[in-house]
Write a structure and sequence with these properties.
about 450 residues, Gyrase A, domain 2, six-stranded mixed β-sheet, 17 helices, 13 strands, binds guanosine-5'-triphosphate, binds magnesium ion
């Protein structure tokens, strides 16, 4: 069910506490407390509640009045805090035992341990940020590359949500306009058939497409692609995996059938995360272990975005490769690699003069052993993934955002079709669905299930 999930106030919620720094030893460890009891807890532990936003150096005491640590205490009076509630931060010495004692004291005086993402969830419920911004915090923390961190920061600063909000505003205005026109039926047809509505919808479609493109870029930087290496035994799959990973991740020998299980490696190609899978070579065999390996190879192919089909160029393309191409699902992009070009004498790089049947796939000659042609292969992978040269303007987005954007796109397209047919009521209905889809992104319209799912993936203390 879709409901507006925001509660009018969260002041009656329990006070929560968590370790905000990583578990383990560190120079500083921070315990964070949020909720109505924060000031009272400060009085118990520090002897008094510090002045808002003023760092004070104080001893921290437990329930027995013993000093367990001393450090910096900070108090933020709600609503001027991260969560919008009263927040207390105790910065002590970052040892696991000290932090444990401090957490114990804080819970003794009235807080309970926070669930994952509960601080961010309260910030969202108290209108300190919208959903895309809350998600951007988790993405910034999890960022696996500089690009990912930059796009997350852009979303955190509101670039994504501002554009979505602006579009929602335009769609709403248009809907009100159409609805108002319907109150005057004799004028309605004229008013729609003038083409103004269709023009406005077309503008909104453009804006939405541009938002989608940048979100898709961000999502690519966040999630990456699945790339599977496939081919006959000894084609050089494991050698290529090692060349791309720049380490000896998989065993390479001249014995056909060396790789039996899937070898996984995550690499970064200029900010694009690539989940590489090296697989067991495909051939006729009675060996039970190898057969199971090949079953796993096909499993991996079905879940891949890109399949790299390696061929030993000294053997050449055969019906085995043709069968693999024929059995590969349509959703998987195929790259055909003629490997061992150092032996076959073929010049490395993109191949253009190919059989017409193969020409629809990208083909390259490389040498996994010498590294010749590998740079061209990398550019080709980035291009297939849709990675743009500059990550500029991309904002961190998740699959759920892309789904809602696609949903909005299709309803806006339907609204456009209704506009062509002068169907005022149906235009208004479609525009409403566009609004709803976009509202799910920023969290204006969400279900409790969705919120629970999003915040549970956060780390504790955030
Ligand atoms: N000359 C030359 N030899 C290569 C090249 N790539 C791989 N080889 C050799 O080919 C043999 C097989 O390489 P692997 O990488 O183990 O092949 P594979 O496709 O993983 O084989 P399986 O795991 O058995 O399916 C090894 O002896 C490699 O050194 C290349 O580009 N040039
Ligand atoms: Mg191998």
């Amino acid at each position: 069910m879709t409901v507006n999930a925001k509660q009018p106030e969260t002041t009656n919620l329990e006070t929560i506490a968590a370790l905000a720094t990583p578990v383990g030893r560190g120079g500083v460890g921070i315990v964070r407390v949020s909720g109505q009891q924060a000031a009272k807890i400060a009085e118990h532990i520090l002897g008094r509640c510090p002045q808002p936003r003023l760092a004070e150096y104080l001893p921290f005491k437990n329930a027995e009045g013993e000093v367990i640590d001393q450090g910096i205490a900070l108090f933020f009076k709600g609503p001027h805090s991260f969560t919008g509630e009263d927040v207390l931060e105790l910065q002590g010495h970052g040892g696991p035992v000290v932090m444990d004692m401090l957490l114990h004291a804080v819970t003794h005086f009235g807080a309970r341990l926070a669930r994952s993402g509960e601080f961010s969830e309260r910030a969202f419920l108290n209108d300190k940020m919208d959903l895309t911004q809350a998600e951007a915090i988790a993405d910034l923390i999890d960022a696996g590359s500089e690009q990912a961190a930059r796009t997350a920061m852009r979303s955190l600063q509101g670039a994504f949500s501002t554009e979505v909000h602006d579009l929602v505003k335009q769609v709403t205005e248009l809907r009100i306009y159409v609805e108002a026109a319907m109150d005057f039926p004799e004028e309605e047809i004229d008013f729609i058939s003038e083409g103004k509505i269709s023009e406005k919808i077309a503008e909104q479609q453009q804006t939405l497409d541009s938002i989608f493109e940048r979100a898709a870029q961000g999502s690519l930087i966040r999630e990456g692609i699945n790339l599977v290496l496939v081919g006959r035994p000894n084609a050089g799959k494991s050698s290529l995996l090692n060349a791309l990973a720049q380490r000896e991740a998989a065993i390479v020998t001249d014995v056909p059938g060396t790789t039996r299980d899937i070898v996984k490696e995550v690499i970064m190609l200029d900010g694009l995360p690539v989940h590489l899978l090296d697989t067991a070579g495909l051939r006729e065999t009675e060996d039970v272990v190898e057969k199971e390996g090949m079953r796993r190879t096909w499993d991996a192919i079905s879940q891949a975005d890109v399949m790299i089909l390696l061929i030993d160029d000294t053997d050449g393309f055969s019906s085995i490769e043709q069968d693999i191409i024929d059995q590969c699902p349509d959703s998987v992009s195929i790259v055909i690699l003629f490997n061992k070009c150092d032996q076959s004498g073929q010049a490395p790089g993109v191949l253009t003069e190919l059989d017409p049947d193969l020409a629809k796939h990208t083909s390259l000659a490389i040498s996994a052993k010498t590294g010749a042609g590998v740079d061209e292969l990398i550019s080709c992978i980035k291009q297939l993934a849709g990675m743009q040269a500059t990550g500029e303007g991309a904002y961190m987005a998740r699959r759920r955002h892309l789904l809602e954007l696609t949903n909005a796109q299709s309803h806006l397209e339907l609204a456009q079709q209704q506009a062509q047919q002068n169907e005022g009521e149906l235009i208004a209905e479609e525009l409403k669905l566009v609004q709803q889809a976009l509202g799910q992104i920023t969290g204006e319209v969400t279900s409790d299930d969705l919120l629970g799912k999003i915040f549970s993936e956060f780390c504790i203390g955030k």
